[in-house]
Amino acid sequence: MNVEFIEALDQLEKEKGVSKEILIDTIEAALVSAYKRNFGSSQNVRTEIDRENGDVKVYTQKKVVDEVENDFLEISLEEAREFNPNYEIEDIVEFEVTPKNFGRIAAQTAKQVVVQRIREAEREVIYEEFVNRESEIVTGIVARVSKGIVYVSLGRVEGVLNQTEQIPGETYEIGQRIKSYILEVKKTTKGPQILLSRSHPGLVKRLFELEVPEIYDGVVQIKSIAREAGSRTKMAVHSVDENVDPIGACVGPKGIRVKNIVDELKEEKIDIIKYSQDPGEFISSSLSPSKVISVEVDENEKSAKVVVPDYQLSLAIGKEGQNARLAAKLTNWKIDIKSESQAK
Predict the structure, then answer these.
(1) With the C-alpha atoms ordered 32, 33, 37, 42, is the resulting torsion angle positive or negative?
(2) Which residues have C-beta within 8 Å of that of residue 285, sequence separation ≥ 6?
(3) pLDDT exceeds cutoff 90 at 28
(4) Are 340 and 291 in contact (CB under 8 A)?
(5) 236 near 327, Cβ under 8 Å?
(6) Is 34:109 a contact under the CB 8 Å cutoff?
(7) Distance CA 17, CA 260 (A)
(8) Ramachandran region of residue 257, left (φ > 0), alpha (ψ -120 to 50) or beta?
(9) Does residue 33 carry a pLDDT above 80?
């Protein structure tokens, strides 16, 4: 190795953020293993790379003892003092044992270490970039589909969209551009793993933040979301400015804002309701589009008895109970729905 090698390490430190000192320390440790593998493993050795010119030297280390039992690891006090009269028992004496052809081995070893460290540094950069984006939306391109798992290209890394996180019934074509929710970022031996979701309620929330400036600015707040992906979402919104209609802001002029989100979610229905601190009012709104006659709440049990017109009962409950189920999730209340005639 030579001056150019040291300069290359300096350049790496600037461009990739890989510490030159850590690299050299790692190379020196790898050179010890390379030396032992090629020239015998019985000795204690230390390698040293000159930080200025890149020269590599190998030193064998022997402990100063009264009585030598192992010539490879020990040296007598008498013999040690022939080199330096100041040596004492337990001191370490070093002798240079650099083989003639060690430069070639050193260069190969250094290259392997540097390549590995660059790979690790790049993985760390990607991990740090995405771990701070958990719970955010990312746009990617479908790279491949294997055994039902969709791999999405996010630039320097692929995201994984498992079957459990896909929208039921949605199909994915290679080259298709999709928005996904970053569910989790994991460190693995093969680099960062980015788990994506298209079915998480957070995706709907982030899509509205992108589409509705009033939500992004904090004027309109999303209080809660209940979602059955691919079918229906209920979302409760509140405005901190009485002059701004939270539902109107989310729907947008001629319904354009909510339409863009429905298109992204492949025609998933979205019910936007007005949030209220009054439980009865909130529960009544949550059962939209059904009309509600009365709501009787039990604060202790956090349950509510709701009465709806006879002709609205099936609408309030919804297909396979979906409307009632989503309303319960949205409000976090148990809801018992009865028709007017049943309640009498």
Answers:
(1) positive
(2) 236, 273, 274, 275, 276
(3) no
(4) no
(5) no
(6) yes
(7) 41
(8) alpha
(9) yes
Strand intervals (E) in 74-210: 74-76, 92-96, 137-146, 149-153, 158-161, 177-188, 191-197
Structure-block tokens of residue 145: 């589909």
pLDDT over 90 for what percent of the chain?
60
Residue 70 has φ and ψ, to the nearest 5°, of -140, 110
Q: How confident is the model at residue 148 (pLDDT cuts 50, 70, 90)?
A: very high
Candidate from 66-80, 114-128, 164-178, 215-229 with smallest mean pLDDT = 114-128
Asked whether the predicted pLDDT for residue 175 surpasses 80, the reply is yes
Alpha-carbon Rg for the chain, nearest whole angstrom, is: 34
C-alpha closest to that of 236 among 207, 203, 274, 181: 274
pLDDT of residue 1: 58
What are the strands, taking DSSP E only, across 189-288? 191-197, 220-228, 232-239, 269-274
Q: Domains plus CATH for the chain?
A: 3-130 (3.30.1480.10), 141-197 (2.40.50.140), 200-275 (3.30.300.20), 276-344 (3.30.300.20)
Q: pLDDT digit string (tens) for 190-199? A: 889 999 999 9
DSSP code per residue over 197-213: ESSSHHHHHHHHHHH-H
For CA atoms 17, 20, 25, 27, the dihedral sign is positive
